Structure formats: structure tokens, C-alpha cells
Amino acid sequence: MSDNKNFHMTPDDFRKYGRAVVDWIADYYERIESFPVLSQVKPGQTRGLLPSEPPALGEAFESILKDVDNLIIPGLTHWQSPNFFAFFPANASGPAILGELLSAGLGIQGMLWSTSPACTELETHVLDWLVDMLGLPTKFKSDAAGGGVIQDSASSASLCALLAARERATEYGSNQQGCDGRLVAYASTQTHSSVEKAVKIAGLGSQNLRLIRVDDRFALRPDDLVKQIKQDRQDGLIPCFVCATVGTTSSNAMDPLSEIGGICREEGLWLHVDGAMSGTAALCPEYRYMHDGMELADSYCFNPHKWMFTNFDCDCFYVADREILIKTLSVLPEYLRNKATESGAVIDYRDWHIPLGRRFRSLKLWFVIRYYGVEGLRYHIRRHVELAQNFARWIGETDRFELVAPAPLNLVCFRHLGGDTFNQQLLDRLNQSGNIYLTHTTLNNKYVLRFCVGQTHTEEHHVYQAWRQIQETAKELEKSDLR
Amino acid sequence: MSDNKNFHMTPDDFRKYGRAVVDWIADYYERIESFPVLSQVKPGQTRGLLPSEPPALGEAFESILKDVDNLIIPGLTHWQSPNFFAFFPANASGPAILGELLSAGLGIQGMLWSTSPACTELETHVLDWLVDMLGLPTKFKSDAAGGGVIQDSASSASLCALLAARERATEYGSNQQGCDGRLVAYASTQTHSSVEKAVKIAGLGSQNLRLIRVDDRFALRPDDLVKQIKQDRQDGLIPCFVCATVGTTSSNAMDPLSEIGGICREEGLWLHVDGAMSGTAALCPEYRYMHDGMELADSYCFNPHKWMFTNFDCDCFYVADREILIKTLSVLPEYLRNKATESGAVIDYRDWHIPLGRRFRSLKLWFVIRYYGVEGLRYHIRRHVELAQNFARWIGETDRFELVAPAPLNLVCFRHLGGDTFNQQLLDRLNQSGNIYLTHTTLNNKYVLRFCVGQTHTEEHHVYQAWRQIQETAKELEKSDLR
Question: Which of A41, A46, A404, A413 to mutate to test binding with chain B, by most B CBs within 10 Å of its CB?
Fold first, then answer.
């Protein structure tokens, strides 16, 4: 509720309440370890606390902020807790949060170059920086035929890659006449589920997605890929797209890009590489081996919003040939025509993704890169990998747990020798404790626990405490099993 | 650059720099009218100021913020300026900006109920509130068979509606076998270009999008729609989807929902209603006539990020039957399985849109509704409409300008009688002045200026000054034409 007769928040109130929210956030990070990492509310519990009707008259900002404490906090799973080891991280940082704040304050739209040139140009520039920072092929830079764009998620990026592949394979015919059920896409059994979602959305049909078998390191088997492509061609189908992954979601497996890329070149298929979390590791030269063969990729994405301290959403999506992407997604109604667009001298990012409108997301990425510097970012990546490797070593040193997959970076897949039910119970107990949060997967039909180190504020003692609790909880469970 | 040995921003520095950014934003709004509304930089100008290499070592936050002033501001088109009358607005407000800040600070992921129950439940709750606030059919509420979800944009919402329509029409066969080129979608010549984009993305093909003719108010002609559907059926095609618009982008035309809805029911087609900007007007009972027939719609969307003081992105998308949407978009890999999902007692919003990850966007919407109250929001909608209606009246009172379309709400389409080139030159001069920003469209093959009132801080004197400048600039142009 504003004192202002027009109901708006006055500039003075904005300063006052802005400080209050900034302080609230600083306080939140200082007390974050006091909350259960995984929210313990029951379904409907949060809604039950909310009034059934919206307020007719405005309320005081203080009471809104108080309700965040009382009603919202108990219903949060604390992704920014240093004891969050679940899924992949979605880490954030001070400079990112303030970049997002500034972006919200400016409130500009970046759909066209002309609707805020700096939004487009900073994005292009920072994404070019990242090509160098990660040692990616220079073809992905805007001064070559390619370029980068920020998308909301790797799911959307994969969809755009698939659409571009679909149009390249049909000479833009699918856009015109629609799909005809003959296009085929390839991934592995370990590829992220967003590729299956994309194949459905894009009208290929899930029957035309081939999930290629993986080897004992859970990496896609190129020999099987070749066989399947040949089979599909024999059946009169049209192979068009392969998704390879650098760091799969289940186990961080690294698909062999060079071999897959060679096949894609040979067969004329679009190669998209998904490096959603692990891609960030390439900031450090010693981990760039995982990108060997990237020069054969048509598109690539990784998510600074996972492991590069940039709050969601910020997926960086690169294409080697921007014309194909633009031709795939462009529509130009009269009300969006403008001189800059028609000059051809500028990028209009609306043609690079699904939505038309877009926030100024490169601001937060720019803030993060400048505030940490490349060396600051590398420091944390190395530290997280080191902590995860310690954890993997501890697993290897026990006789009760086993590693279930290679742990090349910051994700450790492990299980207790007690079997699937035991591991399920172990996970439940750990998460219900509120002290830590882990998630699971299945590998070779076994129930497996995942331990991923990537939260901004995770330190050695958090990982050590987590490991102690895992061991102690397992011991308790072993005893109750014996009873 | 942090003083911290681990490169992170310390809590104290976060408080300090957070205040600096809050104050920066407050200052920005106080000086926003001193900037040219439309950025006057040339292509490449912003990039030319940026260093070609990212910094190896972190930099001081102060110098980053200073660069926002020096490098970024000149490259912005100021969407939050009260003199912004272009496109549709993308208005923001103090409570929305602070809600976005809080969301960034919390940094949680709302992809599953379990990954932060409050994120899901607050969203469901606030979107239920909005059904009542807008007088929408109660079937869109979560306690009926429907429900609402926040999407990034009306583009994405339309795509999801089309996908659900596609799957309903093919009994989920398109998801499985892929599209076969026989599905047909319908819109009008005035429908937003995102529907054409969606038809391409979804594999229907743009040849299978019928752009139905409009009447002299630029509204879709139901008689033509019926004829086209019959023709398509005769041709062995499968009509599946109609997009009707409440407030088209070009001219704010209102498609007749009742008649279109009747046809859709008769023919078994999915009716999606796009109320991107104008939908907000339904906060005021006197404008709800435009929603007559909404009870026949299968889905609906409107954008609080356009005209409801909630910074982008915040599109509210409703479906009458959530099961169809969920069945269309759901994929469930092992690593996302959890007890809450399997209980069926919760909503997992990842199945309601394209991306997997999602921000806590309902926070800012909740902040806005609570801070303004329903009456505060209504006050501004009525005020904007009144200001636009004044402008339309002034146009009608001159002998040099004409109204080119009905102006039911806050958008006025007009032109000078001097012809297309004259109007183009007029627009260029106005925008180059930096004082105001308008955009154009074409209606009945004529070049038309659009004047949309919806910016948060636009007052009577801004509209009056704009009108004076339009008249004066036209007079200057008339004189130079005579020379």
C-alpha cells in the first residue's frame, strides 16, 4: 500500500523497501543452514495459509515481506544452501542477484536490436567472451558465421537446435508443409529428457527418437549410432539430428564428441552438444578434454545458471551457422519492422528462440564475469571438483558403499551395498533429516544416490559433514535391518 | 572483485552494493525523462566500448555499476519512460522489481512441487485469484478441471495451447508418430505473429495455418471461419485449433469470442484466446464485455508483464482441462521421480510448459496484487484508458489526422492525411527527437501510427505533450513538403 494518492510506490519508499529486501536476502544467506534443505511441508499446506480472496485495497510492504518469512520460507527447498547436493546445482551469487535486480529495474525489452541495442550487443559480446573463456571453437562467435544467445533453459535450447536441424534436413519444408513422420533424431539412453520433450513438440514423434545404447561408462556408443542410422535410412526415414552430452544428468557421462561428430559429418546430421552443467568446467584448461570434437558440432549449450554463479535463467546457446536458426524461427509482422532490422547490420534475438519478449539477462552474466574474473570462477570450479573427488575417494575407501559410475567432475554416483530398498530408505532418511538434500537415479537398473557439489557456498566441512551423516544413517539402517 | 579470499561477495558487501543498486534504480526513474526514449546509438556502438577480452581478475563493483551509466544507458530504449507509447507497454513497478529481487535472492527452482512447494502453491493460488479478479470462467481454476501457470510469454503460451490442441485432435498420436501434415490451425490476418511461429515449431507447417479475413473493425469473421473449416474437411484435412484475440497487436481489435467459440464447440476445435495486453482491462467490470464467450475457450492467456505493473516475464496461461496439457508435455525420467509427484496430490509445473527449470515468478505477481490491491490496479487501468480516449478525441477534432480503427481501450491507431510516406517521415522525426517513442503498423494497406498508453508513470501531461509534438512536427513536415 502506497501513501501515494496514485497507489504507486514512491521513489523514497522504493529506496526504503529496496534496502529492506536487500537486507532480507543477506540475512537469508546468513541463516540458510538453519532451515531444512528439503522443504517439509505437506501438499496444500502453503495454500492453506493464504487468504482465499485477493485484497481489494493495498497492503503495507512490511506485512508482505513478513509473510515471506511466515508463509513462504517453510515451503522452500533451499537450493542456495551449502548442504544442497541434489539434482544439478542452480547456484547464484551476489553480483548475479544484483544484475537481475538492475535488469528488473530497467525493465527493457530486448526482442529487437532497436528496442534496446545495448541488450543485444552486450549479450553478443559476453557470449563471444565465453567462447574464448571455455576454449570453444571460434565458429561459435559472432564474427564468424555463428553466434550465441541466452535462452531460458537447455530444454529450450535443445528444442531450437532440433528445429534448426529439422529445417536444414527438409530445406525449410517442415516449416512450410509440416512434418511427415519421417524425420529421425538420435540421443542416448542417458540423454536428458528434454530431448524427448523436444522431439514431441517439434512434431517428429517420440517413435522417431532413437535412444542409442551406452557403454560401461554410460557414454553413447558410436558403433550403435552408425548402425541405427543405416537401418533408418534403409527403412526410408530421414535421420536429421543427434544430441550428444557433455556430462549427463544421471551420472555426468561424457559422450565421445569426436567420433559422434565424425558420424554426423559423414551422414549430414546436425550435432547438438548439451553441456548444461558440466560445460562450465571448461573454464579450466585441464577439463577441456571433454570438448574434444566440439569443432564438429552444429550447436552447443551450457548453463551458467547451473554452475557459474548466475541465477536462473541463463542458458548460453551457440550455433555454428546462425542463418539456419534465424531462417527457422523468423517471422516478421509489420508492427516489428524497423530500419535497423532491414539494414541487416544488427542481430534481432527474437529470431533465435521461442518467445518474442526477452529480459536483459546478459547484465547478470556480465556482472558475474567481471566481479569474479576468469580466475575467480576457475578457483571455484576446481574447488568443487576437488571436494567431489574427496567424496568419491571416501566412498572408495569403505567396504559398505560403492561408486557406480566414473566421477569425472563434481557429481558422484554411489550406493550402499544393501540393495535398492536400503538405498531408497537411506535417501529418505537423509532428506527427512533436513541437514542435507540428495537425489537419486537408476543406472544399470540399480537405485543410485547422486551427490553433486556445486552450490556457491559449499565448503569442505559441508561435504565432510554430509559424508559423516550418510555413514551414520546407513549404520542405523543396517542395525534396524538386522532386528 | 571481492576482498574475500574466495572471491565471493561478502554479506556486508552485498548489503552495501545492494543499496547502491536500489538507489541507482530509484535515481534512474527520477531522471528517466532526461534520456531519449528511443536509443540513438548506431549498430556496433555499444560493443565498440566493451573490452575485447574478459577480465582475468575480478573488478570492483563500483566500476561495474559506473559502466552501466557510461556504456549501457546510451544503448537503452527506455521502456519505463512515461513517454513510451510504442508497441504494447511492458510496465513495471516498485513491488514487482522487489519481488523479482527476492526471487533472484532465494534462487529456488520450481520445476517440481517438491523442489519448492511454496513456488508451486503460491503460483496456483495467485492464478486462481486472477480468475476471480478478471471475472474469467471458474473452469480455469485449480479446484475445477483446469488451472493456471506462469509462462515467459504469450508466444510460449500459444505454442503450448497449440500442442495440447494437436494432441487432443490426434489422441496423443502426434506426440508418438509425429505430425503428418494434415492438421490445420486458424487465426485471423490480425493475429499475433507468434501463432505462425507456433504452427511452424509444432510441425503443422505454415501452409496449414489459415489466416481468416477480418471485418471493418479488424475482428475475425466467423462466417469465413466456418467456410474455411468446411473446405478443409472436404480436402481431407483435420482442423484442430483456433486462436482468437482480445485486443490484437496492430489495432486492439476484439474477436467475437461467442460466435467463434460456438463454431469451435460445433466442430470440436480447441479455442485459445490471446488477451496478451488487453486482458488486464477485465480487472474493471465495465470492460469485461470483451470476454463474452470466454466460457467456450479451452485456453486463455494474458500478460501482467504488459499492463499490470509486473516486470517481464509473467504471462498467465489458463487451460480448462489441465490433464490434456500435462499429457501433452509430460516426460518423467528417473532422476525427477519423487513421492509427492507419484502421490498425484501435487502440481508439477514442469509439465505445463517447454522449459524444465523455472523461477519463482509468482512472488512478484503476489507483491503487485497485494501492494496495489485490486482497486489500485483498476485505478490505473481506467486512467490509461481515459488518457488514450482523450488522445483519440483530439485526433477526431482535427482536420489533419484521422482515426484508422476503433480504440476500445488504451491503443489509438491514427494517421495524418498526408499519405504513407508523410506518416513514415512523421514517425521518424518524432522518434528521433527523443522526446517520445511511437511505433507503426499497416491497416488496410495503409501506414498507421500507434499510440499506446500503458506505461506505469504516464500522466495526463505526457499524453498532452506528445499530442502537441505530433501536431507541431506534422506542421513542420507539411511546410517542408510545400517547399
Answer: A46
In a domain, residue A461? The reply is yes
Residue A336 to residue B193, Cβ atoms within 8 A: yes
Looking at the structure, tell me whether residues B425 and B459 fall in a common domain.
yes
Distance CA A459, CA A464 (A): 9
CB–CB contact B56 A373 (8 Å): yes
Asked if A44 and B121 touch (Cβ cutoff 8 Å), the reply is yes
| Residue from B3, B41, B175 to probe the interface with A (highest A Cβ count within 10 Å) | B175
* Among candidate residues A75, A100, A128, the one where a domain is terminated: A75
**Mean pLDDT on A321-349:** 88
What is the block-wise mean pLDDT of chain B (483 residues), using blocks of 10 residues?
82 97 98 97 97 97 97 98 98 98 98 96 98 98 96 98 98 95 97 97 98 98 98 98 98 98 98 97 98 98 98 98 95 81 88 96 98 98 98 96 98 97 97 97 97 98 98 95 61
Q: Is the pTM of this model over 0.90?
A: yes
Instruction: Judge whether A146 lies within some domain.
Output: yes
Q: Do A333 and A286 fall within a single domain?
A: yes
* Partner-chain contact B76 A108, CB within 8 Å: yes
User: Cα–Cα distances in Å, from A4 out to A7, A9, B131?
Assistant: 5, 7, 28
Contacts of B95 (CB under 8 A, 6+ apart): A9, A61, A64, B309, B364, B367, B368, B370, B371, B372
**What's the structural domain count of chain A?**
3
Range(s) of the domain holding residue B317: 108-359
Q: For residue A364, how many C-alpha atoms fall within 13 Å in the half-sphere facing its CB?
A: 33
ipTM: 0.97
Q: Are B101 and A57 within 8 A, CB to CB?
A: no
Asked whether residue A325 falls in the same domain as residue A467, the answer is no
Describe the strand order of the beta sheet including B147-151 as a list of residue ranges.
B147-151, B315-319, B299-302, B270-274, B238-245, B183-188, B209-212
Max Cα–Cα distance, chain B, nearest Å: 79
Considering only the beta carbons, identify the residue of A64, A104, A329 that sits closest to B370. A64
Residues B119 and A131: beta-carbon distance below 8 Å: no
Shared-domain flag, residues B229 and B115: yes
B91 in any annotated domain: no
Give the integer Cα–Cα distance in Å for B1 and B190.
51
Q: What pLDDT, on a 0 to 100 scale, did the predictor assign at position B336? A: 77
Quote the CA–CA distance of A246 and A276 in Å, as a whole number.
8
